[in-house]
Design goal:
The chain is an alpha+beta fold. The chain has 19 helices and 13 strands. Strand 10 and strand 11 form a beta hairpin. One of its GO terms (biological process) is proteolysis.
Protein backbone atom coordinates (compact mmCIF):
# COMPACT_ATOMS: atom_id res chain seq x y z
CA UNK A 1 0.00 0.00 0.00
CA UNK A 2 1.00 3.58 -0.45
CA UNK A 3 0.38 6.41 1.99
CA UNK A 4 -3.13 7.39 3.00
CA UNK A 5 -3.59 10.78 4.64
CA UNK A 6 -6.77 12.46 5.83
CA UNK A 7 -7.30 15.42 8.08
CA UNK A 8 -10.24 16.98 9.84
CA UNK A 9 -10.42 20.62 10.75
CA UNK A 10 -11.93 22.89 13.39
CA UNK A 11 -14.96 24.67 11.84
CA UNK A 12 -14.02 28.01 10.32
CA UNK A 13 -16.00 31.19 10.34
CA UNK A 14 -16.15 33.32 7.21
CA UNK A 15 -15.27 36.38 9.28
CA UNK A 16 -11.61 36.58 10.27
CA UNK A 17 -9.34 39.36 11.31
CA UNK A 18 -6.31 40.38 9.36
CA UNK A 19 -3.26 42.35 10.39
CA UNK A 20 -0.46 44.03 8.43
CA UNK A 21 1.74 40.94 8.65
CA UNK A 22 -1.07 38.75 7.39
CA UNK A 23 -1.98 41.14 4.61
CA UNK A 24 1.60 41.20 3.39
CA UNK A 25 1.71 37.43 3.50
CA UNK A 26 -1.55 37.23 1.55
CA UNK A 27 -0.09 39.26 -1.30
CA UNK A 28 2.80 36.82 -1.68
CA UNK A 29 0.65 33.69 -2.01
CA UNK A 30 0.50 32.34 -5.54
CA UNK A 31 -1.60 29.65 -7.09
CA UNK A 32 1.29 27.21 -7.49
CA UNK A 33 1.76 27.27 -3.70
CA UNK A 34 -1.88 26.27 -3.16
CA UNK A 35 -1.54 23.64 -5.84
CA UNK A 36 1.50 22.21 -4.07
CA UNK A 37 -0.38 22.04 -0.78
CA UNK A 38 -3.49 20.55 -2.34
CA UNK A 39 -4.31 17.14 -0.93
CA UNK A 40 -1.62 17.32 1.75
CA UNK A 41 -2.07 16.95 5.49
CA UNK A 42 -1.50 19.94 7.76
CA UNK A 43 0.10 17.73 10.39
CA UNK A 44 2.50 15.50 8.44
CA UNK A 45 2.48 17.39 5.06
CA UNK A 46 2.16 14.06 3.20
CA UNK A 47 0.17 14.15 -0.01
CA UNK A 48 -2.84 11.89 -0.32
CA UNK A 49 -2.86 9.31 -3.11
CA UNK A 50 -6.34 8.00 -2.42
CA UNK A 51 -8.33 11.20 -2.17
CA UNK A 52 -9.08 14.20 0.01
CA UNK A 53 -11.31 13.73 3.01
CA UNK A 54 -12.24 16.37 5.57
CA UNK A 55 -14.08 15.64 8.76
CA UNK A 56 -15.09 18.65 10.84
CA UNK A 57 -14.43 18.43 14.55
CA UNK A 58 -11.10 17.50 16.06
CA UNK A 59 -7.89 17.80 14.04
CA UNK A 60 -6.85 14.20 13.28
CA UNK A 61 -4.24 12.77 10.95
CA UNK A 62 -4.35 9.13 9.90
CA UNK A 63 -1.17 7.91 8.26
CA UNK A 64 -0.39 4.28 7.38
CA UNK A 65 2.86 3.40 5.59
CA UNK A 66 3.73 0.16 3.87
CA UNK A 67 7.25 -0.66 2.77
CA UNK A 68 6.16 -3.39 0.38
CA UNK A 69 5.21 -1.40 -2.73
CA UNK A 70 4.83 -4.51 -4.85
CA UNK A 71 1.70 -5.56 -2.97
CA UNK A 72 -0.05 -2.24 -3.51
CA UNK A 73 -2.72 -3.53 -5.86
CA UNK A 74 -3.37 -6.87 -4.16
CA UNK A 75 -6.41 -7.18 -1.96
CA UNK A 76 -6.43 -9.94 0.60
CA UNK A 77 -2.61 -10.25 0.62
CA UNK A 78 -1.09 -11.78 3.75
CA UNK A 79 2.28 -10.07 3.32
CA UNK A 80 3.85 -8.75 6.51
CA UNK A 81 3.69 -5.02 7.18
CA UNK A 82 5.82 -2.70 9.24
CA UNK A 83 4.48 -1.16 12.40
CA UNK A 84 2.51 2.03 11.98
CA UNK A 85 2.37 5.22 13.98
CA UNK A 86 -0.93 6.96 14.59
CA UNK A 87 -0.88 10.44 16.00
CA UNK A 88 -4.03 12.12 17.21
CA UNK A 89 -4.41 15.68 18.48
CA UNK A 90 -7.66 15.91 20.43
CA UNK A 91 -9.41 18.50 22.55
CA UNK A 92 -9.03 16.39 25.69
CA UNK A 93 -6.01 15.49 27.81
CA UNK A 94 -2.83 14.30 26.03
CA UNK A 95 -0.58 11.37 26.93
CA UNK A 96 3.01 12.48 27.25
CA UNK A 97 6.23 10.51 27.53
CA UNK A 98 9.35 11.54 29.44
CA UNK A 99 10.38 14.01 26.72
CA UNK A 100 6.94 15.69 26.66
CA UNK A 101 6.12 14.37 23.18
CA UNK A 102 2.92 12.57 22.18
CA UNK A 103 3.49 9.13 20.75
CA UNK A 104 1.58 5.91 20.68
CA UNK A 105 2.81 2.81 18.95
CA UNK A 106 0.12 0.60 17.55
CA UNK A 107 0.00 -2.85 16.07
CA UNK A 108 0.00 -3.26 12.26
CA UNK A 109 -3.49 -2.33 11.17
CA UNK A 110 -5.68 -4.89 9.59
CA UNK A 111 -7.79 -4.22 6.56
CA UNK A 112 -10.86 -3.72 8.73
CA UNK A 113 -9.08 -1.21 11.00
CA UNK A 114 -7.84 1.07 8.24
CA UNK A 115 -9.71 4.35 7.73
CA UNK A 116 -12.58 4.15 5.30
CA UNK A 117 -14.61 6.83 3.60
CA UNK A 118 -17.44 6.49 6.07
CA UNK A 119 -15.18 6.64 9.11
CA UNK A 120 -13.09 9.58 7.98
CA UNK A 121 -15.86 11.84 6.73
CA UNK A 122 -17.45 13.30 3.58
CA UNK A 123 -15.39 14.13 0.53
CA UNK A 124 -14.91 17.62 -0.83
CA UNK A 125 -13.92 18.82 -4.26
CA UNK A 126 -10.65 20.57 -5.03
CA UNK A 127 -12.13 24.05 -4.79
CA UNK A 128 -13.53 23.43 -1.29
CA UNK A 129 -10.26 21.95 -0.09
CA UNK A 130 -8.33 24.92 -1.47
CA UNK A 131 -10.79 27.28 0.23
CA UNK A 132 -10.23 25.68 3.61
CA UNK A 133 -6.47 25.81 3.15
CA UNK A 134 -6.57 29.41 1.99
CA UNK A 135 -8.57 30.44 5.05
CA UNK A 136 -6.12 28.52 7.23
CA UNK A 137 -3.17 30.33 5.62
CA UNK A 138 -4.73 33.79 5.64
CA UNK A 139 -6.57 33.54 8.96
CA UNK A 140 -5.34 35.07 12.20
CA UNK A 141 -1.94 33.92 13.39
CA UNK A 142 -2.17 31.25 16.04
CA UNK A 143 -0.29 30.84 19.28
CA UNK A 144 3.11 29.20 18.93
CA UNK A 145 3.00 25.65 20.42
CA UNK A 146 6.49 26.17 21.83
CA UNK A 147 5.25 29.25 23.69
CA UNK A 148 2.29 27.28 25.02
CA UNK A 149 4.61 24.68 26.51
CA UNK A 150 6.87 27.39 27.92
CA UNK A 151 3.93 29.22 29.49
CA UNK A 152 2.57 26.05 31.05
CA UNK A 153 5.97 25.28 32.56
CA UNK A 154 6.83 28.78 33.77
CA UNK A 155 3.50 30.40 34.67
CA UNK A 156 1.03 27.77 35.78
CA UNK A 157 1.52 25.49 38.74
CA UNK A 158 0.45 24.61 42.27
CA UNK A 159 0.70 28.19 43.52
CA UNK A 160 -1.24 29.90 40.70
CA UNK A 161 -3.42 27.80 38.42
CA UNK A 162 -3.26 24.05 37.84
CA UNK A 163 -4.00 23.35 34.18
CA UNK A 164 -6.05 20.23 33.47
CA UNK A 165 -7.23 20.85 29.93
CA UNK A 166 -6.66 23.03 26.88
CA UNK A 167 -9.23 24.18 24.34
CA UNK A 168 -9.26 26.57 21.36
CA UNK A 169 -9.91 30.19 22.26
CA UNK A 170 -10.98 33.11 20.09
CA UNK A 171 -13.35 33.64 17.19
CA UNK A 172 -11.52 31.14 14.97
CA UNK A 173 -9.76 29.07 17.59
CA UNK A 174 -6.54 31.00 17.08
CA UNK A 175 -5.81 31.11 20.81
CA UNK A 176 -5.51 28.66 23.69
CA UNK A 177 -7.91 28.43 26.65
CA UNK A 178 -6.38 26.92 29.77
CA UNK A 179 -8.90 25.18 32.01
CA UNK A 180 -8.10 23.94 35.47
CA UNK A 181 -8.19 24.77 39.17
CA UNK A 182 -7.45 28.15 40.73
CA UNK A 183 -4.89 28.08 43.54
CA UNK A 184 -5.39 31.54 45.05
CA UNK A 185 -7.40 34.74 44.91
CA UNK A 186 -8.28 35.28 41.28
CA UNK A 187 -7.23 38.95 41.12
CA UNK A 188 -3.85 38.23 42.71
CA UNK A 189 -3.24 35.18 40.52
CA UNK A 190 -4.18 37.08 37.37
CA UNK A 191 -1.87 40.00 38.19
CA UNK A 192 0.98 37.58 38.87
CA UNK A 193 0.38 35.66 35.63
CA UNK A 194 0.29 38.87 33.60
CA UNK A 195 3.63 40.07 34.96
CA UNK A 196 5.25 36.66 34.47
CA UNK A 197 3.89 36.44 30.92
CA UNK A 198 5.74 39.63 29.97
CA UNK A 199 8.93 38.30 31.52
CA UNK A 200 8.71 34.96 29.72
CA UNK A 201 7.42 35.92 26.25
CA UNK A 202 7.81 39.69 26.13
CA UNK A 203 5.15 41.96 24.67
CA UNK A 204 3.78 39.20 22.47
CA UNK A 205 0.55 37.89 23.98
CA UNK A 206 -2.53 39.06 25.85
CA UNK A 207 -3.82 36.96 28.74
CA UNK A 208 -7.56 36.99 29.47
CA UNK A 209 -9.30 35.80 32.63
CA UNK A 210 -12.78 34.63 31.67
CA UNK A 211 -15.50 32.49 33.16
CA UNK A 212 -15.03 28.80 32.47
CA UNK A 213 -17.41 27.78 29.66
CA UNK A 214 -20.06 25.18 30.50
CA UNK A 215 -19.01 25.05 34.15
CA UNK A 216 -21.25 22.82 36.25
CA UNK A 217 -20.33 24.22 39.66
CA UNK A 218 -19.00 27.49 41.11
CA UNK A 219 -15.49 27.95 42.35
CA UNK A 220 -14.96 26.63 45.92
CA UNK A 221 -13.41 29.99 46.81
CA UNK A 222 -16.56 31.80 45.73
CA UNK A 223 -17.77 33.17 42.42
CA UNK A 224 -17.63 31.45 39.05
CA UNK A 225 -14.87 29.12 37.95
CA UNK A 226 -12.29 30.89 35.83
CA UNK A 227 -10.13 30.00 32.85
CA UNK A 228 -7.27 31.82 31.18
CA UNK A 229 -7.23 32.58 27.46
CA UNK A 230 -4.10 33.36 25.45
CA UNK A 231 -4.12 35.36 22.21
CA UNK A 232 -1.50 37.12 20.16
CA UNK A 233 -1.62 40.90 20.56
CA UNK A 234 -1.90 41.56 16.84
CA UNK A 235 -4.95 39.29 16.76
CA UNK A 236 -6.74 40.40 19.93
CA UNK A 237 -6.15 44.15 19.78
CA UNK A 238 -8.11 46.39 17.35
CA UNK A 239 -6.26 47.76 14.36
CA UNK A 240 -5.46 51.45 13.80
CA UNK A 241 -7.89 53.83 12.13
CA UNK A 242 -7.36 53.99 8.38
CA UNK A 243 -7.56 57.00 6.08
CA UNK A 244 -10.84 55.82 4.59
CA UNK A 245 -12.38 55.63 8.04
CA UNK A 246 -11.45 59.26 8.66
CA UNK A 247 -13.03 60.21 5.34
CA UNK A 248 -16.23 58.31 6.14
CA UNK A 249 -16.40 59.89 9.60
CA UNK A 250 -16.06 63.37 8.09
CA UNK A 251 -18.79 62.74 5.51
CA UNK A 252 -21.15 61.40 8.19
CA UNK A 253 -20.50 64.44 10.37
CA UNK A 254 -21.34 66.79 7.47
CA UNK A 255 -24.55 64.87 6.83
CA UNK A 256 -25.38 65.11 10.53
CA UNK A 257 -24.97 68.88 10.38
CA UNK A 258 -27.43 68.95 7.47
CA UNK A 259 -29.95 66.73 9.27
CA UNK A 260 -29.71 68.91 12.40
CA UNK A 261 -30.44 72.05 10.35
CA UNK A 262 -33.32 70.22 8.71
CA UNK A 263 -34.70 69.45 12.18
CA UNK A 264 -34.53 73.13 13.07
CA UNK A 265 -36.43 74.03 9.90
CA UNK A 266 -39.06 71.36 10.53
CA UNK A 267 -39.62 72.71 14.04
CA UNK A 268 -41.03 75.88 12.42
CA UNK A 269 -43.76 73.95 10.65
CA UNK A 270 -46.42 76.59 11.34
CA UNK A 271 -44.29 79.24 9.58
CA UNK A 272 -43.29 77.25 6.53
CA UNK A 273 -44.98 77.81 3.14
CA UNK A 274 -48.06 75.58 2.65
CA UNK A 275 -46.65 73.85 -0.44
CA UNK A 276 -43.55 72.83 1.52
CA UNK A 277 -45.59 71.50 4.43
CA UNK A 278 -47.86 69.58 2.07
CA UNK A 279 -44.93 67.93 0.31
CA UNK A 280 -43.45 66.65 3.57
CA UNK A 281 -46.72 65.65 5.24
CA UNK A 282 -48.93 64.47 2.36
CA UNK A 283 -47.95 60.97 1.12
CA UNK A 284 -49.72 61.63 -2.19
CA UNK A 285 -47.59 64.68 -2.99
CA UNK A 286 -45.27 63.97 -5.93
CA UNK A 287 -43.78 67.19 -7.25
CA UNK A 288 -41.21 68.72 -4.88
CA UNK A 289 -41.55 72.43 -4.11
CA UNK A 290 -38.92 75.06 -4.72
CA UNK A 291 -36.36 74.48 -1.96
CA UNK A 292 -35.24 78.09 -2.16
CA UNK A 293 -38.36 78.86 -0.13
CA UNK A 294 -36.61 77.29 2.88
CA UNK A 295 -33.58 79.59 2.82
CA UNK A 296 -35.20 82.34 4.94
CA UNK A 297 -35.82 79.78 7.70
CA UNK A 298 -32.25 78.47 7.96
CA UNK A 299 -31.07 81.22 10.29
CA UNK A 300 -33.93 80.65 12.74
CA UNK A 301 -33.22 76.89 12.60
CA UNK A 302 -29.64 77.25 13.82
CA UNK A 303 -30.44 77.32 17.58
CA UNK A 304 -31.98 73.85 17.38
CA UNK A 305 -29.15 72.59 15.18
CA UNK A 306 -26.52 73.98 17.56
CA UNK A 307 -28.29 72.38 20.48
CA UNK A 308 -28.40 68.92 18.90
CA UNK A 309 -24.78 69.09 17.73
CA UNK A 310 -23.71 70.31 21.16
CA UNK A 311 -25.37 67.31 22.80
CA UNK A 312 -23.62 64.93 20.41
CA UNK A 313 -20.22 66.50 21.08
CA UNK A 314 -20.79 66.48 24.86
CA UNK A 315 -21.65 62.78 24.63
CA UNK A 316 -18.37 61.97 22.90
CA UNK A 317 -16.34 64.20 25.21
CA UNK A 318 -17.79 62.28 28.15
CA UNK A 319 -16.53 59.01 26.68
CA UNK A 320 -13.04 60.39 26.07
CA UNK A 321 -12.75 61.99 29.52
CA UNK A 322 -13.64 58.68 31.17
CA UNK A 323 -11.30 56.68 28.94
CA UNK A 324 -8.24 58.92 29.29
CA UNK A 325 -7.40 58.14 32.96
CA UNK A 326 -7.79 54.41 32.24
CA UNK A 327 -5.42 54.67 29.24
CA UNK A 328 -8.13 53.28 26.95
CA UNK A 329 -8.03 54.42 23.33
CA UNK A 330 -11.25 55.24 21.46
CA UNK A 331 -11.91 55.54 17.77
CA UNK A 332 -13.19 58.66 16.08
CA UNK A 333 -17.00 58.93 16.35
CA UNK A 334 -19.07 57.98 13.32
CA UNK A 335 -22.19 60.15 13.60
CA UNK A 336 -25.44 58.72 12.25
CA UNK A 337 -27.70 61.40 10.66
CA UNK A 338 -31.45 61.24 11.16
CA UNK A 339 -34.04 63.72 9.93
CA UNK A 340 -36.41 63.16 12.88
CA UNK A 341 -34.02 63.67 15.79
CA UNK A 342 -31.14 65.28 13.92
CA UNK A 343 -28.97 62.26 14.66
CA UNK A 344 -29.10 58.77 16.09
CA UNK A 345 -25.87 59.42 17.99
CA UNK A 346 -22.49 58.05 17.00
CA UNK A 347 -20.62 54.76 16.79
CA UNK A 348 -17.46 54.92 18.90
CA UNK A 349 -15.27 51.83 19.09
CA UNK A 350 -12.72 50.77 21.66
CA UNK A 351 -9.23 50.83 20.13
CA UNK A 352 -7.59 49.01 23.02
CA UNK A 353 -8.56 46.10 25.23
CA UNK A 354 -10.38 47.12 28.40
CA UNK A 355 -8.63 46.08 31.61
CA UNK A 356 -11.77 45.13 33.58
CA UNK A 357 -15.55 45.34 33.67
CA UNK A 358 -15.62 48.42 35.92
CA UNK A 359 -13.78 50.37 33.23
CA UNK A 360 -16.32 49.20 30.66
CA UNK A 361 -19.20 50.45 32.81
CA UNK A 362 -17.58 53.81 33.56
CA UNK A 363 -16.71 54.63 29.95
CA UNK A 364 -20.06 53.44 28.65
CA UNK A 365 -22.09 55.51 31.11
CA UNK A 366 -19.96 58.66 30.87
CA UNK A 367 -21.11 59.57 27.35
CA UNK A 368 -24.90 59.28 27.87
CA UNK A 369 -24.59 60.95 31.28
CA UNK A 370 -22.78 63.99 29.84
CA UNK A 371 -25.21 64.24 26.93
CA UNK A 372 -28.23 63.84 29.22
CA UNK A 373 -27.03 66.58 31.58
CA UNK A 374 -26.71 69.09 28.75
CA UNK A 375 -29.96 67.96 27.11
CA UNK A 376 -31.99 68.21 30.31
CA UNK A 377 -30.49 71.61 31.06
CA UNK A 378 -31.61 72.93 27.67
CA UNK A 379 -35.00 71.27 28.07
CA UNK A 380 -35.59 72.80 31.51
CA UNK A 381 -34.38 76.28 30.50
CA UNK A 382 -36.50 76.10 27.36
CA UNK A 383 -39.63 75.27 29.36
CA UNK A 384 -38.99 78.19 31.71
CA UNK A 385 -38.52 80.55 28.75
CA UNK A 386 -41.68 79.17 27.15
CA UNK A 387 -43.72 80.26 30.17
CA UNK A 388 -42.08 83.71 30.25
CA UNK A 389 -44.22 86.37 28.52
CA UNK A 390 -41.12 88.42 27.64
CA UNK A 391 -39.80 85.64 25.37
CA UNK A 392 -42.86 85.44 23.15
CA UNK A 393 -40.98 86.57 20.04
CA UNK A 394 -38.57 83.64 20.23
CA UNK A 395 -41.22 80.93 20.59
CA UNK A 396 -42.30 78.49 17.89
CA UNK A 397 -45.61 76.73 17.49
CA UNK A 398 -45.58 72.92 17.55
CA UNK A 399 -48.45 70.42 17.63
CA UNK A 400 -49.31 69.43 21.18
CA UNK A 401 -49.48 65.78 20.09
CA UNK A 402 -45.68 65.75 20.03
CA UNK A 403 -45.61 65.82 23.84
CA UNK A 404 -47.31 62.44 23.91
CA UNK A 405 -44.16 60.81 22.54
CA UNK A 406 -42.56 60.50 25.99
CA UNK A 407 -44.19 59.73 29.32
CA UNK A 408 -41.35 61.23 31.34
CA UNK A 409 -40.81 64.40 29.29
CA UNK A 410 -44.54 64.88 28.72
CA UNK A 411 -45.22 64.90 32.46
CA UNK A 412 -42.45 67.44 33.07
CA UNK A 413 -43.81 69.68 30.30
CA UNK A 414 -47.34 69.39 31.67
CA UNK A 415 -46.18 70.32 35.17
CA UNK A 416 -44.25 73.36 33.90
CA UNK A 417 -46.54 74.80 31.21
CA UNK A 418 -49.87 73.96 32.83
CA UNK A 419 -53.08 72.34 31.68
CA UNK A 420 -54.36 75.22 29.56
CA UNK A 421 -51.21 75.50 27.47
CA UNK A 422 -50.81 71.77 26.95
CA UNK A 423 -54.45 70.91 26.31
CA UNK A 424 -54.60 72.72 22.97
CA UNK A 425 -53.96 72.02 19.31
CA UNK A 426 -50.59 73.82 19.33
CA UNK A 427 -48.13 74.77 22.04
CA UNK A 428 -45.75 77.75 21.99
CA UNK A 429 -42.31 76.62 23.13
CA UNK A 430 -38.74 77.87 22.97
CA UNK A 431 -36.38 76.16 20.48
CA UNK A 432 -34.29 74.95 23.42
CA UNK A 433 -37.17 72.64 24.38
CA UNK A 434 -36.93 70.92 20.99
CA UNK A 435 -33.15 70.61 21.19
CA UNK A 436 -33.29 69.25 24.74
CA UNK A 437 -36.13 66.85 23.90
CA UNK A 438 -34.27 65.44 20.91
CA UNK A 439 -31.03 65.23 22.89
CA UNK A 440 -32.65 63.27 25.73
CA UNK A 441 -34.30 60.93 23.24
CA UNK A 442 -30.95 60.30 21.55
CA UNK A 443 -29.32 59.48 24.90
CA UNK A 444 -32.21 57.18 25.83
CA UNK A 445 -31.97 55.25 22.57
CA UNK A 446 -28.23 54.79 23.01
CA UNK A 447 -28.73 53.57 26.57
CA UNK A 448 -30.97 50.68 25.53
CA UNK A 449 -29.41 47.45 26.90
CA UNK A 450 -28.71 45.70 23.64
CA UNK A 451 -25.71 44.85 21.49
CA UNK A 452 -22.78 47.25 21.41
CA UNK A 453 -24.76 50.34 22.40
CA UNK A 454 -23.68 52.24 25.49
CA UNK A 455 -26.49 50.60 27.43
CA UNK A 456 -25.51 47.16 26.19
CA UNK A 457 -21.89 47.70 27.20
CA UNK A 458 -22.94 48.99 30.63
CA UNK A 459 -25.23 46.01 31.30
CA UNK A 460 -22.60 43.57 30.04
CA UNK A 461 -20.01 45.11 32.34
CA UNK A 462 -22.30 45.35 35.36
CA UNK A 463 -24.07 41.98 35.17
CA UNK A 464 -21.96 39.83 32.84
CA UNK A 465 -22.19 38.58 29.29
CA UNK A 466 -25.11 36.25 30.00
CA UNK A 467 -27.28 39.15 31.19
CA UNK A 468 -27.01 41.03 27.90
CA UNK A 469 -28.72 38.15 26.11
CA UNK A 470 -31.91 38.46 28.17
CA UNK A 471 -31.87 42.25 28.12
CA UNK A 472 -31.25 42.23 24.37
CA UNK A 473 -34.15 39.90 23.57
CA UNK A 474 -36.49 42.00 25.71
CA UNK A 475 -35.35 45.20 24.01
CA UNK A 476 -35.77 43.79 20.51
CA UNK A 477 -39.26 42.60 21.42
CA UNK A 478 -40.34 45.99 22.78
CA UNK A 479 -38.90 47.77 19.74
CA UNK A 480 -40.59 45.35 17.36
CA UNK A 481 -43.96 45.89 19.05
CA UNK A 482 -43.49 49.67 18.99
CA UNK A 483 -43.73 49.90 22.78
CA UNK A 484 -40.50 51.91 23.05
CA UNK A 485 -39.74 54.86 20.79
CA UNK A 486 -43.09 55.07 19.02
CA UNK A 487 -42.64 55.64 15.26
CA UNK A 488 -38.83 55.60 15.67
CA UNK A 489 -38.78 52.04 17.06
CA UNK A 490 -38.55 50.34 13.66
CA UNK A 491 -35.73 52.47 12.13
CA UNK A 492 -33.79 52.36 15.39
CA UNK A 493 -34.20 48.59 15.64
CA UNK A 494 -32.96 48.15 12.07
CA UNK A 495 -29.99 50.41 12.79
CA UNK A 496 -29.03 48.33 15.83
CA UNK A 497 -29.40 45.06 13.94
CA UNK A 498 -27.21 46.30 11.09
CA UNK A 499 -24.52 48.21 12.99
CA UNK A 500 -24.59 47.55 16.73
CA UNK A 501 -25.97 44.05 17.34
CA UNK A 502 -22.68 42.36 18.36
CA UNK A 503 -21.87 42.52 22.10
CA UNK A 504 -18.61 44.07 23.21
CA UNK A 505 -15.55 41.80 23.39
CA UNK A 506 -14.39 40.58 26.81
CA UNK A 507 -12.03 42.55 29.02
CA UNK A 508 -8.67 41.26 30.15
CA UNK A 509 -10.27 40.60 33.53
CA UNK A 510 -13.79 39.64 32.56
CA UNK A 511 -14.67 37.92 35.84
CA UNK A 512 -14.29 40.37 38.75
CA UNK A 513 -17.63 41.89 39.70
CA UNK A 514 -18.26 45.63 39.69
CA UNK A 515 -19.36 47.55 42.76
CA UNK A 516 -22.92 47.75 43.99
CA UNK A 517 -23.24 51.45 43.21
CA UNK A 518 -22.36 50.83 39.55
CA UNK A 519 -25.05 48.16 39.27
CA UNK A 520 -27.55 50.49 40.94
CA UNK A 521 -26.66 53.33 38.57
CA UNK A 522 -27.16 51.06 35.54
CA UNK A 523 -30.56 49.89 36.82
CA UNK A 524 -31.76 53.45 37.53
CA UNK A 525 -30.52 54.63 34.13
CA UNK A 526 -32.33 51.78 32.37
CA UNK A 527 -35.55 52.64 34.24
CA UNK A 528 -35.32 56.29 33.17
CA UNK A 529 -34.66 55.18 29.59
CA UNK A 530 -37.90 53.20 29.58
CA UNK A 531 -39.87 56.16 30.96
CA UNK A 532 -38.35 58.45 28.33
CA UNK A 533 -39.06 56.20 25.36
CA UNK A 534 -42.48 54.99 26.55
CA UNK A 535 -45.17 57.02 24.69
CA UNK A 536 -48.41 58.16 26.24
CA UNK A 537 -51.53 56.34 25.13
CA UNK A 538 -54.60 58.43 24.29
CA UNK A 539 -56.63 57.71 27.43
CA UNK A 540 -53.80 58.67 29.78
CA UNK A 541 -52.86 61.70 27.67
CA UNK A 542 -56.45 63.00 27.81
CA UNK A 543 -56.67 62.40 31.54
CA UNK A 544 -53.40 64.23 32.18
CA UNK A 545 -54.20 67.00 29.72
CA UNK A 546 -51.19 66.41 27.50
CA UNK A 547 -52.20 67.20 23.94
CA UNK A 548 -55.65 67.60 22.46
CA UNK A 549 -57.08 64.12 21.97
CA UNK A 550 -60.22 63.90 19.85
CA UNK A 551 -60.51 60.11 19.42
CA UNK A 552 -59.71 57.12 21.57
Amino acid sequence: MGTFTSCSFIPLNSEFRSNPVRRAFRERIQYHELNRLRGSCYLCRERSKLGRYINFGRFTCFSSNNNDANNEGESGSNASQDSNVTTTLSDGAEERNENGLNSEKSRPPSASSRPTLSSVGPTYNNFQVDSFKLMELLGPEKVDPADVKLIKDKLFGYTTFWVTKEEPFGDLGEGILFLGNLRGKREDVFAKLQSQLVEVTGDKYNLFMVEEPDSDSPDPRGGPRVSFGLLRKEVSEPGPTTLWQYVIALLLFLLTIGSSVELGIASQINRLPPEVVKYFTDPNAIEPPDMELLFPFVESALPVAYGVLGVLLFHEVGHFLAAFPKKVKLSIPYFIPNITLGSFGAITQFKSILPDRSTKVDISLAGPFAGAVLSFSMFAVGLLLSSNPDATGDLVQVPSMLFQGSLFLGLISRATLGYAAMHAATVSIHPLVIAGWCGLTIQAFNMLPVGCLDGGRAVQGAFGKSAIIGFGLTTYTLLGLGVLGGPLSLPWGLYVLLCQRTPEKPCLNDVTEVGTWRKTFVVVATFLVVLTLLPLWDELAEELGIGLVTTF
